[in-house]
Amino acid sequence: MRFQRILPAVILLMAPVAAVCLLFLSVMYGSKSISQETVWQAFFSFDAENVDHQIVMVSRLPRAVGALLIGAFLAISGALMQGMTRNYLASPSIMGVSDGSIFLVTLAMIFLPSSNSISLIVVSMIGSAIGAAIVFGLGWLIPGGLIPVRLAILGTIIGTFLSGLSAAAASYFQLSQGVSFWYNAKLHAMDPTLIKLSIPFAIAGLGLALLLSRSVTVMSLGDDVAAGLGQRTALVRVLILLTVVILTGVSVALAGKIAFIGLIVPHIARFFCGEDYQRIIPVSGVLGGLFLAFCDILARFINYPFETPIGVVTAMFGVPFFLYLIKTRGGGKHA
Amino acid sequence: MPDPLASRGWSVSAVILAVLAGGAYLSLTSGMFDLTFAEMVKTLLRIDPVKEHDLVVFDFRLPRIVLSALVGAALGMAGTVIQGVTRNGLADPGILGINAGAGLAVVLFMFFFQGSMQIKGWMAVMIMPMFGLVGGFMAVLLIYLFSQQNGRLDPQRLILVGIAIASGFGAATLYVSLKMNPNDFEMAAVWLAGSIYNANWKYVLTMLPWLIILPPILWWKSRSLDLIQLGEDSAISLGVKVERDKHILLLCSIGLVAASVAVSGSIGFVGLIAPHMARRLVGLNHTNILPVSGLIGAAMVVWGDYVGKTIFAPAELAAGIVISIIGVPYFVFLLLKMKR
Question: Where are its TM segments located (chain A) (predicted)?
Fold first, then answer.
């Protein structure tokens, strides 16, 4: 279709503008509104004495940037997983990847309380890898376990299990409060140093995702076709999983588990750009970032002046969409 | 051919009762304040009562044990019926979002009425399950609406829709509970965690009417439940009014779930595991499965609560978490066994 060739380009060109707009809205509005001039001043002539400047630079700006980045990471992870497994329900939060991360972060906070930010990111990535390994391993063992609906059931159940274990461990070591940050996503308490630390990982993950996008398209045609076209499927699979693990791990380390972004956004991107993952992946990233930033702004206004947990906002969009997918796509078919 | 397992009903029940009693005994005697066997018997039989023992036994431990048993029994039976009606071995009130629906309704009730209407105490406690019933019913309606395709219920899709609905209701519950004033929020948070540690006799009395009225109805309909297993067409041709009976059965089991959610929050996986164990033990006849599954559920929650309160003492782990840690591997095992 014609519009599927032009639209991705339009989206990608418009994205920076939209991102900057959302960034501004996000910085200006909240429980304390800050005027446009003050924001400019905070950017260009920062005054450490001024409370408003502090709010802008320490709280609002990291939060907005974080939301954009995390949304992009999660959406790209979801797109990669959906392409690789040909499973229209695949996404980091449904497949237990995020829960694996949270589980290991909890353990790290208990046993290595002095660990610094960088090791937190690494631990979170290892956790993602463990979560993914358990779910896909079981799916592979169970007859028909890789059928979309069944893998989704497995993923959510394993996710519940891992988060139950984290809750148990946390309450045993009386750390519930510190750890509960990770269950209830904490966009509002974004740590600027953590964001800076995560940049190299993010670049690696995004670069890998873009490099792999061609292979994902081939993969999404099915294993046999991919092998017939000369793709080294095992290698590609490992690389894709590695990318998912990096991206999800970083976003959990930054803000905890945020559900549904990785599920919804790739579908929307696919609607705009057809089946070519070279377009789907960048468009997913862009739309994911914008969507999460938008949800984050919404979260401040639903129950003004109190913040609504971001999970509630994403669920508001995500649950109906999820139900719609199950209703229209059925149980057995592949994406 | 008579089912060889069917005649084992009584002996199996006796064994489960013994397990249940063992859990109750441990739970009654150990804790922050240990009692000896003699002390426990003396206190229970009112032989020269000691005030401290009375307090520990009658105000703290006994209501908790009784409530655990009641909740477990309700969930075990409800799970049996739901698995039977949907003909789906993976169904469970927790997984299907019925708990979450009932939970949302109860939290809404706390939010709107608890503060303003002066019906604290008896009235409020008795009304909560009613609201739970409405919420649970909503959840079931939604599940049917979304998982039915060409008039057929696809088992796996049912589960997934349930999971989605549970997470939606969960998010709504979180949202409502955050809008509450701090006092009510505290209460809601404790309750939502699926724990029984704030049990008291009032809750036990709330549960009782539901447990007295509904199980006999289920038991009376258990024959239809057997026939539904043969497929709806066969059941209809055997003279079962399938639609009507299904509705009665589902409504009663939602009632049981609602009552237990109202007093103890959401405890998952009991309704999943108990019926499977019961089927293994006493065969496929629902007249037998139903009571045995109730007993197994009761034993599970009593033990789960005991483990939760002792293993990490003095910190308490909600019984729901303990059971889900056992329940998940079992669920995966069931999935492993299931043919495609």
Answer: 7-29, 64-81, 93-112, 118-142, 149-173, 193-213, 234-252, 280-302, 308-326
State pLDDT tens for residues A227-268. Answer: 888 888 888 888 998 999 999 999 988 888 888 899 899 999
Contact B82, B152 (CB under 8 A): no
The verdict on residue B1 lying in a domain is no
Encoding tokens for residue A15?
A: 């994205």
Contacts with B174 from chain A: Cβ below 8 Å: 309, 311-312
Chain B residue numbers with beta carbons less than 8 Å from the beta carbon of A89 are 160
Q: What is the mean pLDDT of residues A291-320?
A: 86
* Domains in chain B, number: 1
Residues of A in contact with B268 (CB under 8 A): 160
Q: What is the pTM of this model?
A: 0.82
| Distance between CA atoms of residues B180 and B186, nearest Å | 9
- Give me the count of residues in chain B: 340
Asked if A312 and B167 come within 8 Å (Cβ–Cβ), the reply is no
In the stretch 198-237 of chain B, residues with CB closer than 8 A to chain A read none
Query: Structural domains in chain A?
Result: 3-329 (1.10.3470.10)
Per-residue model confidence (pLDDT) at position B294: 94
Q: Look at residue B1 in the predicted model and tell me its pLDDT.
A: 41
Q: For residue A153, give the chain B residue with the closest CA.
A: B160
Rounded to a whole number of angstroms, the CA Rg of chain B reads 20
- Nearest chain B residue to A141 by CA distance is B336
What CATH code is carried by the domain that includes residue B125?
1.10.3470.10
Split at pLDDT 50, 70, 90, the class of A332 is: very low
Whether B21 is in a domain gets the answer yes
| Per-residue pLDDT tens over the stretch B84-109 | 888 888 788 888 888 889 888 888 88
Cβ pair A77, A92 in contact under 8 A: yes
DSSP 8-state symbol, A309: P
Q: State the smallest CA–CA distance between residue A4 and chain B in angstroms.
A: 30
A to B CB pairs, distance under 8 Å: 108
Asked if A303's CB is within 8 angstroms of B164's CB, the reply is no
- The residue segments making up the domain with residue B320 are 6-337
